[in-house]
Design goal:
Number of helices: 6
Oligomer: single chain
CATH architecture of the largest domain: 2-Layer Sandwich
Radius of gyration: 19 Å
Shape: globular
Distance between the termini: 25 Å
Largest sheet: 6 strands, mixed
CATH superfamily of the largest domain: RutC-like
CATH class of the largest domain: Alpha Beta
Number of domains: 3
Length: 360
């Protein structure tokens, strides 16, 4: 387990990366999770994401039910095995201590949690998806965006308050174009292109609900002058909007005493928006890492400042063979979850996202 902390005033926000430390993957993860959240004076969970093979979902779900307070957590179970034999890749846990936390519900569903730190109000959404699983994928995407909007409206926010989104799409290669069209239309209708466009990841994989997609998000409403979010361009890539994807390559969220750089899902794409190094996972990894590092350096940070991240490999054999080599590129692999997930283009073999933090 590895943890990164943002401390400001009396509030401590933490990002925990839990990876199996024994052959019994599920039991190992649940033991680590229990050690974090069971007991007096421990942090409150803002969101939990689990990555693993589909056959492990029931065991993780059963284990979560045994943990006090888990019924208030936004949870996503995402298909992302760490190897060809399956198993659990790990858990990403977002927690806060020293703040009053409010649970966000839509009907009977837990879809988010909110807290304040004196400088801003934050909403963390997780496991957000459509109600009608029989609808077309595009309709489910539209419904998911509207449910995200409804969850934010329950906190007095709107889609314009989004800082960062994650979309986990089942059969991503079959309908990613439709998803982008739906997102772009919704963002245009809400006036999002008039200002900041959220950083984002769109990655392929099934989920525990059997929905066409599940979403997570971070939104904020500043309450002080030193709090805000700005887009960060990628020094080595073109804007995603150049080829029809409505997201920012990266963003910087500033708060009282900290700067948080959020790098969107990044793959081996050249400045013209074309896939490079087709067929070579090693070369695609190297370019991706260089692109991410250039973004961090542009804000005075590096991989040493990474608080959490994901490394998505298209093929499970690559995840096993090349996951450890990320360390050679300077990437802190202990703060990454390495999983098998389909990337948004047939010829992309690898994608990575990270967040980094500097406190002052």
């Amino acid at each position: 387990m590895n943890s990164a902390l943002i401390r400001r005033n009396s509030v401590e926000e933490s990002f925990h990366t839990l990876r199996p430390d024994s052959d019994d993957h599920v039991r190992s993860l649940l033991a680590q999770l229990g050690a974090l959240v069971v007991g007096e004076g421990l942090p409150q969970v803002l969101e939990l994401r689990y990555f693993g093979s589909l056959d492990t979902f029931d065991a993780i779900r059963s284990g979560l039910k045994e943990l006090p307070g888990s019924g208030e957590w936004p949870v996503s179970f995402l298909d992302g095995a760490p190897s060809p034999s399956g198993g659990a890749a790990g858990i990403q846990l977002h927690t806060v201590r020293g703040a009053q936390v409010e649970t966000i519900r839509l009907g009977d569903a837990i879809v988010g949690r909110a807290f304040r730190d004196g400088g801003a109000r934050y909403c963390i959404l997780g496991g957000v998806g459509p109600d009608d699983l029989s609808a077309t994928s595009a309709r489910q995407a539209e419904a998911t965006l509207l449910r995200m909007e409804a969850a934010l409206q329950a906190q007095g926010m709107e889609l314009k308050n989004l800082v960062r989104t994650w979309f986990f799409l089942n059969d991503i290669l079959g309908w990613y174009g439709q998803f982008n069209e739906t997102r772009t239309r919704t963002f245009r209708e809400r006036g999002i292109f008039e200002g900041y466009v959220p950083a984002s990841t769109g990655i392929g994989g099934m989920n525990h609900r059997g929905a066409a997609l599940l979403a997570s998000a971070l939104a904020t409403e500043p309450a002080a002058r030193d709090v805000g979010v700005t887009e960060i361009p990628s020094p080595l890539q073109c804007p995603a909007g150049s080829y029809g994807s409505s997201f920012s390559r990266a963003a910087e969220l500033t708060g009282p005493g900290f700067r948080r750089v959020i790098v969107s899902g990044t793959a081996s794409i050249d400045p013209q928006g074309r896939t490079t190094h087709v067929g070579s996972v090693t070369d695609q990894m190297a370019l991706t890492v260089n692109v991410v590092e250039a973004i961090l350096r542009s804000r005075g940070m590096g991989f040493r400042d990474v608080s959490r991240g994901n490394a998505y490999f298209k093929r499970a054999r690559h995840a096993v063979a090349f996951g450890p080599t990320l360390q050679h590129f300077g990437v802190p692999s202990e703060r990454l979850l390495i999983s098998t997930n389909t990337v948004c283009r047939e010829d992309l073999l690898f994608e990575m996202e990270v967040e980094a933090v500097l406190t002052r």
